[in-house]
Write a structure and sequence with these properties.
This protein is 30% helix and 12% strand. The chain has helices at residues 17-30, 55-65, 102-111, 114-118, 129-136, 148-162, 166-179, 189-197, 257-265, 275-278, 294-302, 304-307, 346-349, 371-387, 415-422, 484-492, 542-557, 568-577, 603-615, 642-648, and strands at residues 39-41, 52-54, 88-90, 96-98, 204-208, 215-216, 236-237, 240-241, 249-253, 313-319, 335-341, 356-361, 390-393, 401-404, 406-413, 441-444, 447-450, 538-540, 586-588, 591-593. The longest helix has 17 residues, at 371-387.
Length: 649
């Protein structure tokens, strides 16, 4: 006998006799399966068979919250279990539909709104009507195992993997409609996108001032002019607003909270969100995940209440600019801000599918020190996640819902992006953020040079007394570390300036006072209650640095005229410092001669080195084919990628 379970998917339960009659039949069947204390598992969308109640409470729970999705074989309530994993459900017309895998996906999504459903809030699942209509509809007559929604999700996934354009996707949909006239499918990519946004994880479009002064958001959302520079919010034509309001800039913001909740609501990832506690290294000398590092451990000591629940989320932030137009000559810089979840194991947390895009900052120019304006929505949400948290369903625990909190532990960037985020300028005589005011530097021809690295060596090291470095003996000790109090005292003297694109900025660099050191601003991250106490706030991306160092080393060794650091200006600097006389430039008649250095290859050795690189073979997946980077005359290496430089180093 096939049970009619179509009543479990009815949305308007209060006005449906079919739902009420089906519920009474279900309770009658479940009556004989209560335990000794009169309790039975509750399959409402809030309890999800994780909690047990008395039979009379079961009726009110299901009627108020709805019947859970994905529970198609009532093994806890009287229906005998079968060996077939693909359960069947009687549809509204009495036909039998094989269970679609999208039922589990929608069950995870809707379970996040269980609390709102329980109180009859605005998200009472009416937003999912179109999704369930697509889920119940057959893709094509005679196909029962593939719903229209399932096919559309897989099609959009292929579009993403293979980088199809929206136009090609529209043309494919037209072809499918033409070839299969009875297929139940959307008409265009626009309609598909509208349907997919109902599954959650969408984004907000926030208008911006053309001068990057402020966001038209929250208290400024209804204004037509910038509250800072009074520029119009809209693009103007001949000094007048066009028929359609078009903003100058649009910031895309992807809320973090709903995606973190999804990680806990999904059975495949909920256990992985505890890996940092259950799978961390037990050897104190081994670091295979940030949880093994000193900064993480110090953070836990300072915030024991946060560290007490292993489900609280630790995040890292990365930001950098790129040109979305590829190799076109158009100069454009768009900045994505990406978050990674460090609760996950190391082999997962850096995979693309687990990285969360939180902001997409528009171009055409990089935001620079004004990036704080763009970060405002993210910082406000991070403050909310730290102070109040979010009620989150935990698919692995019987108690169902817990209060999830989140903290940003650090940023990971290259050096220029670090300057924009931290507020400490990466240029000038005090560019080093670690040495701070004690940065050893000097002016050489055309640039600032940073020396004094021997101060980090032991005091009795023989290199400290070697005069070949800069003609002096190094007697300085390593720079002392600045604690939180000292840094905050420095930031107290920093003046707040107007955005660099502001009409009154004038394009002239403001001179910093002596007490401001190299600070350009107090970073917006200091608004986070815990940020000042974090020991390691900003990390430098090793692959960026490794590539720069590798290119400079190879360019100098191979005497590459475009990448070598052994330039004529460098030789003149040696003469100015009065060191390494054998490398000074000298005149031979009317020619200026440059002596060959011991650290550069001769022409014969250059060819031997390049021939060796051409002959190297790697196992599949270890590295690219480096022979393609060797020039035809075996004298230079060109086009090395970051991973190639990592292998070379």
């Amino acid at each position: 006998m096939i049970l009619d379970k179509s009543w479990t998917t009815i949305r308007k339960r209060g006005s449906s006799n079919e739902f009420w009659n089906g519920l009474q039949h279900f309770l009658q069947m479940a009556k004989s399966f209560v335990n000794d204390r009169g309790f039975i598992k509750c399959p409402c969308r809030r309890c999800l068979n994780n909690a047990s109640h008395q039979l009379e409470d079961l009726e009110s729970h299901i009627f108020r919250n709805g019947f859970m999705f994905g529970y198609n074989q009532w093994i806890h309530h009287g229906e005998p279990a079968t060996a077939n994993a693909r359960t069947t459900v009687a549809g509204p017309s009495g036909g039998i539909h094989e269970r679609d895998e999208m039922f589990d996906v929608l069950d995870d999504i809707i379970s996040e709104d269980a609390d709102e459903d329980a109180v009859g809030g605005p998200s009472s699942n009416e937003q999912y009507d179109d999704l369930f209509a697509a889920l119940r509809s057959k893709l094509y007559p005679g196909v029962s195992s593939f719903s229209s929604l399932n096919f559309l999700v897989k099609l959009i996934h292929l579009k993403f993997l293979n980088k199809w354009t929206n136009k090609s996707f529209d043309e494919l949909l037209k072809l499918l409609k033409l070839a299969f006239p009875k297929i139940d499918l959307v008409e265009s990519h626009y309609e598909a996108k509208k349907l997919m946004t109902k599954m959650g994880l969408g984004y907000s479009s926030i208008h911006m001032c053309k001068n990057d002064c402020a966001l038209f958001w929250k208290e400024n959302s209804l204004k037509d002019t910038c509250p800072v520079c009074s520029e119009s919010r809209w693009k103007l034509q001949s000094g007048k607003r066009s028929g359609k309001n078009i903003p100058h800039k649009v910031l895309r913001y992807f809320p973090v909270g709903p995606r973190l909740k999804r990680l806990f609501a999904t059975s495949k990832t909920v256990k992985l969100m505890r890996w940092h506690s259950t799978g961390k290294s037990k050897d104190n000398d081994v670091m295979r995940h940030p949880v093994d590092g000193k900064s993480w451990q110090e953070f836990d000591k300072r915030h024991p209440q946060f560290a007490g629940d292993v489900r609280n989320v630790r995040l890292g932030l990365a930001a950098d600019g790129f040109n979305p137009f590829g190799n076109m000559s158009l100069s454009y810089s768009m900045w994505p801000v990406v978050l990674t979840t460090y609760n996950l194991p190391p082999w997962i947390c850096m995979k693309a599918e687990y990285l969360m895009l939180s902001l997409l900052i528009p171009g055409p120019h990089s935001p620079g020190k004004d990036i704080d304006v763009f970060l405002r929505p993210l910082i406000d949400e991070l403050k909310e996640l730290w102070v109040h948290g979010l009620d989150t369903r935990d698919a692995a625990y019987e108690n169902g819902v817990f209060r999830m909190r989140a903290a940003l532990l650090w940023t990971v960037n290259d050096f220029p992006a670090r300057s924009s985020l931290s507020g400490w300028s990466g240029q000038g005589y005090r560019a080093c953020p670690t040495c701070n005011e004690d940065t050893p530097s000097m002016r050489v021809i055309g640039k600032t040079a940073y020396f004094g690295h021997r101060r980090f060596l032991p005091t009795n090291h023989h290199w400290r007394s070697n005069l070949l470095f800069d003609g002096r003996t190094e007697r300085k000790h390593p720079p002392h570390r600045f604690n939180t109090t000292a840094i905050l005292e420095q930031l107290r003297h920093v003046k707040t300036g107007i955005p660099r694109k502001h009409p009154n900025y004038g394009g002239v660099k403001r001179k910093r006072g002596d007490d401001e050191l190299n600070w350009r601003k107090k970073s917006i991250f200091y608004e986070l209650p815990y940020w000042a106490d974090i020991e390691l706030k900003h990390n430098l991306h090793v692959m960026h640095i490794e590539k720069n160092v590798c290119d400079s080393l190879l360019g100098t060794l191979l005497a590459d005229p475009h990448k070598s650091k052994d330039t004529d200006s460098a030789r003149r600097d040696l003469a100015k410092l009065g060191i390494r006389h054998e490398l000074h430039l000298f005149e031979d008649g009317n020619k200026l001669m440059k002596p060959a250095a011991d650290y550069t290859f001769s022409e014969a050795n250059r060819r031997k080195f390049c021939c060796f690189i051409r002959s190297v073979k790697f196992t599949d997946g270890f590295a690219s084919n480096l022979s393609k980077n060797v020039t035809q005359n075996d004298s230079r290496l060109l086009g090395l990628k970051s991973h190639d430089c990592h292998v070379m180093m």
